Each structure stands twice: as C-alpha cells, then as structure tokens.
Amino acid sequence: MIRWRRHLHRNPELSFREHNTVAFVAEVLKKEGIEVRENVARLTPEAKGTGLIALVRGEASSSDRCFALRGDMDALPITEIGKPDYCSTNPGVMHACGHDAHTAMVLGAGIALHRLREQWAGNVMLVFQPGEEKEPGGASLMVKEGVLNDPKPSGIAGQHVTPELPVGKLGFRSGAFMAAADELYITVKGKGGHAASRHAHVDPILIMARLLPALYDEAARIKPETEPMVLSFGKVIANGATNIVPDVVTIDGTLRTFNEDLRNSLHELLPRKSKEIAQAMGGDVDFQLVKGSPVVKNDPELTARLRAVAVGLVGAENVVDMDIRMGAEDFAYYTHVMPGCFYRLGTGNPSKPGTTAGLHRAEFDIDEDALAIGAGMMAWGAACELA
Q1: Are 114 and 177 in contact (CB under 8 A)?
Q2: 258, 281, 278: which is closest to 270 by C-alpha?
Q3: What is the average pLDDT across 356-366?
C-alpha cells in the first residue's frame, strides 16, 4: 500500500482527469483476478468516465449480499512542498487531501478480502470514484448512472485521513456529520473608466464593498441561533488599475448549511439582496448558485456497528467522537440512497514532517502507518457487515 500510495502521490491528476490513476487501479486489481467495470462516472455521454467499480466475491457459501467501500482518486491544483522521495511530478497538482491514501487503502482492503475469499460469503464492491473535489461530484455521477445497483449494496463505508487525529485513532459521528455545500459566483456589473472621472462611473468596486457585508449580515439575520452555517467569499477580482475603474468585479464564495429549509431560504435571499443593492447604486448583478453535495448523513445503526469493529481493531481508547464539520464531502450522495458511514482516520504524527499540516496545504502528508489501520478497518468492517 505504501508503494501504491507513493506512486499515486508522484502522479496526481485533477478532478475528472484521472485517466492514468484509474488505469493504474485497474491494472492492480486485474493482476489479482478481481473483476472490474471501467468507464463509469462520465461527465457527458461522450466523455470517457474516470471511475471504476470492482467486485470481490466471497466463496465461503452462496450469498448475494453486498457491501460497498469507497475511495476517491482526484488531486488538487496545489504546488507541493517537501517529500523528496515521492513529491508530485505533475507541476501545480498535488494529493493534498489524501485521496492517494484513500485509493491505496481501498485497494488494500479489496485485495486482502480477495485473498481470504474462502473465509467469507457475499460481495464487496470497491468504488473508485473521480471528482470529489469538483462539482458535480463524482459520487453524484456514480449514483445517477446506477453503477452501484448490480448488485445493490446494503450499505457503504468511506473514510478520510485526518491530520488533527493522531495515527492509530479512528473518529465516528452518527447522524448529520458534514455540511451541504454550494458554490456562489457573483458578477457585479457597473460602468468603468478613468479613475479621475468618478462622476461618470457606476463603480462596481464600491458596489462590491457594500454588497459583501450586507450579504454576511442578511445571512446571519435569518439563521436560527443554534443552526450552524458558513457564508464565505474567497476570491474577488477587480481587474482595473490605479487609474482605471473596471466595468465588472467577480466574486466567488461558498455556502455551507446543515438545514435544508435554511439552505433554500438563503438560495432565494442572497441573489435577491445582491440585485437590490447593485441596482440601488446604478449597477446590476449576475448571481450564479451551483448547488453542491447535500449533508453527509451517517446511518446510526451502520455507524454503531462499524464503531464496534473499530473498537475491536484499535481499542476503545483509540475510538473517538467527532463533532460536526463545516467541510463538505460528496460521499453524501451515497448516504441519501443507502445507509452510509463516513468516518475519520488519524494520520498525524508530530515526529514525522508534514503529517500534522492541514488538508489542502502544500506541505500536507500522512503517517503511512495509518494505511494498515484504514485498510484493516475497511476489510474487517465489510466482512462483519456480510456475516
């Protein structure tokens, strides 16, 4: 698994471009004699899908039961720092979220189960998914294409490396775990020109400066006091100069919620309020809202069973309760069509460089001792679900 993970780490690919990655996964599985279904999770009917489904069949007795294990494969547009032995060779692209490890661990779990197939019955579906980091989310395409229906799993498990948890620990939460996430793209339209002629302008920068705090205030105003919600804007482009007022300003942001009623209310409020403010100042707004993944809903019964497996694997003292997280995860799509459990795998170790760096950071790394724990958790958890 270390060898697989480092190969993937050296050769990262962005969302929905994981052609070499999925070819590598298919090669490893086929060498073991595991049947695979390629060309799934297609962005368009004409595109080649960069997802893969593999089926591991137990031989202890005849059973059509099935349980699924998910690994995501895409990387991020980040320039890596460090790791001289296995640093990214793809400039500006990096596995900064641990998907290389997720893929290696699902491979490890699947191959372990395949080699022990005479000891268990049923089927384990290995779901190698593209595009977790980019809408529309590879999981949504997997669900839409129906590739998880033959055979239909009774449930699905996924895991995520977590640097704030020490290696050796596993973290669980029942019920709502991770937020729904939507992308916001705002174009503020005005009338620019020479900076010395302010009387002739409809200044989109000034509109933007009034718009953002107003949106923050309005979102906070309608949010119930105890309801978690995040509205953040991380990109503003006003492509003018010291003596040029631009015609447009673009603003990109995100909305994170746990409550669908609040989510829908904000979907109506934010575009309307933006247009009101811009038009009152003589401008206008184009507001594009891209609805993303829903809330990750961990099935209470499945989560309790997998938590018990974790206790047997690493000991009760190493199984911890997780709080809700405002981060999003397209694993959510699976949890809305079947029982799912998404849990956290500790990968932090202060004695190993990079392993306590946060996700999506250029120096991010994992303690590779976690690979055996994560793969073992998945393999044993699936076997227990099929017992």
Answers
A1: no
A2: 278
A3: 96
Q: Do you find a cis peptide bond into 136, omega within 30 degrees of 0?
A: yes
Q: With 90 as the cut, is the pLDDT of residue 6 above it?
A: yes
pLDDT band per the 50, 70, 90 thresholds, residue 82: confident
- Assess contact for 345 and 359: CB atoms under 8 A: no
Residue 229 confidence (pLDDT): 97
- Cα angle 333-335-339, degrees, rounded to a multiple of 5: 150
Q: Residue 380 and residue 67: Cα distance in Å, rounded?
A: 12
Q: What is the pTM of this model?
A: 0.94
**Average pLDDT of span 188-206:** 96
Q: How far apart are CA 80 and CA 88, in angstroms?
A: 7
The upper half-sphere exposure of residue 102, i.e. CA atoms within 13 Å in the direction of its Cβ, equals: 29
Please, which residues have CB within 8 angstroms of residue 54's CB and are 6 or more apart in sequence? 29, 34, 35, 36, 37, 110, 125, 126, 128
Radius of gyration of the chain (CA): 23
Q: Which domains does the chain have, with CATH numbers?
A: 2-178+295-386 (3.40.630.10), 180-291 (3.30.70.360)
Distances (CA, A) of 194 to 206, 226, 245, 290, 374: 15, 48, 6, 35, 60
Nearest to 74 by CA among 126, 27, 128: 128
Q: What are the backbone dihedrals phi and psi of residue 82, each rounded to the nearest 5 degrees, phi first? A: 90, -165
Q: Is the pLDDT at 284 greater than 90, yes or no?
A: yes
Cβ partners under 8 Å of residue 84, min gap 6 = none
Q: Which of 387, 233, 381 is nearest to 311 (CA)?
A: 381
Give me the active site residues, please.
Answer: 74, 132
Which two structure tokens, joined as six digits, stand for 380? 């044993």
